[in-house]
Structures are given as C-alpha cells and as structure tokens.
Amino acid sequence: ATRPWQHVLDVLAGYLSYAEALVHDTGGTVPNALNFGPDTAEAKPVEWLVDRAITQVRDHGIVAADWKNIFGNGPREAAVLALDASLAKRALGWTPRLTQEDAIDWTVDWHAGAMGGKPTRGLVLEQIRRFSERIPG
After folding, report:
1. Buried (b) or exposed (e) across 13-48, using 16+ Cβ within 10 A?
2. What pLDDT, on a 0 to 100 scale, did the predictor assign at position 87?
3. Is the pLDDT of residue 84 over 60?
4. Structural contact between residues 83 and 135, judged by C-beta atoms closer than 8 angstroms
C-alpha cells in the first residue's frame, strides 16, 4: 500500500499560504478548497516508511523491534491513497519543502529528542527554524 507521506510543517505552511491568499483575494480567483501533499509520483509504500523509521530509530540508539515479526502481513487495506496537490501548486505555487525521507527523519529526530528528555517546545521551535530556512519548492 502506498500513502502520501509528509511532514506536518509542510501542510501547515500550505494552509498559511492559502489563508494569506484568501485574505488578499479581492477577485475571487483563489479556489474554495486545496489539498497539500507530496507529488503523487513520489508515493512510498507503508513498508518503506516503517523500515526507514526503524532504521532512524535504531540510529538514535533506541531499541526497535522487527515489525515484520510482530505484525506479519497484517490486515488488507487500500492499495493506494493519494492527494492531488496540483491545484495548490498552480494557485499558490506551493510545493513541499521536505522530501518524504526528510519528513520521516525529522519526525524520528523529534521523538528521539523528546524521549531523551529534551524540552518538546525547543524541539518544535528548532524544526520550525530549520524548515523556515528552506526555500519553498
């Protein structure tokens, strides 16, 4: 199964851009609804995400079980879930700032820091700072 993996900061940046565009839209040209997500051509399987996350967790020195031994094949689910963000790209020029790999790595980094006793507010602010330094698109 594939899913549109993304970091919450990319989605929030999209909605903030959307809100700003709506405020300044005097001609009613901004669409009524938009999706924010990675390019559908870059969809990754669930197995890829779990394997990458476990590798990152282990790199932080956190013990991670072999998920395949715990869950086996698991229940059947929809083969593909995707978001078409092409309208957000056309209307706002929005594209994700983080790759799907970055999204997983940043998420694991945040959780590892929190588990290691770092203040979560500081972890969030540091990721927002790093995110803000990236050029959109």
Report:
1. bbeebbeebeeeeeeeeeeeebebbbbeeebbeeeb
2. 96
3. yes
4. no
The full length of the chain comes to 137
Contact between residue 92 and residue 31 where contact means Cβ atoms under 8 Å apart: no
As a whole number of angstroms, the distance between CA 27 and CA 100 comes to 35
pLDDT, greater one: 98 or 41: 98
Q: How far apart are CA 73 and CA 98, in angstroms?
A: 30
